């Protein structure tokens, strides 16, 4: 299975985030999944790719030419796809992935996973959308989604399109 992973280009302050990225990379390789990610060599992105590669996994990076030209792309990948824009990067990752997983990250990470949830909501895809809620990082997002239901901006059934899980082992239930 091809799995798109969205995560930070920085590691963040909580060491549990780095450990989760490494554990996810290993889990992907051990379960014979292909990692599709943003192509960077640093931050949580670099950690998940390194761990997947070290465990014998297949890693596809999708990077913009700007990142490629700045040499921030991971040079040990099995495949690197370069595109002009971030929108194109999201499109390639979405098309190639059979499932989507978000680790902690910033606004780009949030945008990417929320877009996949939105696309599932309007039935543009029927792929699992999972959020690794490491050390309660995404609790506020879960509360916001619940508020959207309470305020009738989305249906309660829409909450079934995204699964917040606390551990890597919990992914097995959905993938």
TrEMBL record:
NCBIfam families: Rossman fold protein, TIGR00730 family
InterPro entries, alphabetized: LOG, LOG_fam
E.C. code: 3.2.2.n1
Entry protein name: Cytokinin riboside 5'-monophosphate phosphoribohydrolase
Pfam family for this entry, one: Lysine_decarbox
Gene Ontology terms: biological process: cytokinin biosynthetic process
Entry keyword annotation includes Endoplasmic reticulum: no
Keywords attached to this entry: Cytokinin biosynthesis, Hydrolase
Gene3D superfamilies tied to this protein: 3.40.50.450
Enzyme class name: hydrolase
